[in-house]
Amino acid sequence: MKIDDKLLKDTLIESKIPANDFALISKENKTKILSKYVDNTKLNSGRFLRYFECLKDLGKVYYGVEAIRAILELPLEGDFFIFTEKGDDIYKISGWNNIKLIIPQLPSSLDVYITDVNLAAMICLTSEDNVIISGKNPFTR
Q1: pTM value?
Q2: Whether residue 73 has pLDDT greater than 50
Q3: CB 49 within 8 A of CB 93
């Protein structure tokens, strides 16, 4: 698996997580890595973390506009979640219209990396340190 983002690599090294085996990353370590980049108070600057119930085309990588298109084409069923920093608060959002309100806040020049970390949780990491996670709510596992 190819992950280009230097920040994620640095964080993996910092967290002493073996970068060659992402399947072994525990929920606790994932939260530690991701919470570093999440601040719901800065949503307009593009820093946020989002959970989806489903994501199609697992394992594909999209960049820039193609990544935004991939997000817009998600077959959203059920709820998804926005987390504040460190996951202290969770905002549950239902419905396609709500996600369309979030998309325009992303800077159009952003490169968004959608990459397969494991089949249970897809991590989308942008060059601006934005983090989007897709999968099941980690707090209900």
Answers
A1: 0.22
A2: yes
A3: no
